[in-house]
Design a protein that fits this description.
Layout lengths: L7 E6 L4 H12 L3 E6 L5 H12 L3 E5 L5 H11 L5 E5 L6
Parallel strand pairs: 1-2, 1-4, 2-3
Helix pairs in contact: 1-2
Length: 95
């Protein structure tokens, strides 16, 4: 992972458990802002709050059953129209 910048986010799918959760925790511990995606009802709310409080980073998130890279990019732009850079880390991607 590169050095964090205030207006950059790391995009991680499958962020509520396993490797995705570990990547998110590592990124936050290094000062990176996060944009997390996970399945609905997968405990993401609690994890987001933990990362914000523990590492003092900005964490944005979205839940989705199934999506493509194009869907993720669109979601990032729609939810956060300010100019941000997203580094993508895909995890748990299917199909």
């Amino acid at each position: 992972m590169t050095s964090p910048a205030k207006n950059e986010y790391i995009l991680i799918t499958g962020a509520s458990s396993g490797i995705g959760r570990a990547l998110a925790a590592e990124g936050a511990s290094r000062g990176h802002n996060l944009f997390l995606v996970a399945l609905p009802h997968d405990g993401l709310d609690d994890f987001v709050q933990e990362m914000k409080e523990k590492h003092k980073v900005e964490v944005k998130y979205n839940t989705a059953e199934r999506c493509t890279t194009k869907d993720l990019r669109r979601s990032c732009r729609c939810r956060h129209p300010r100019k941000h850079t997203y580094q993508q880390r895909r995890n748990g991607a299917r199909g």
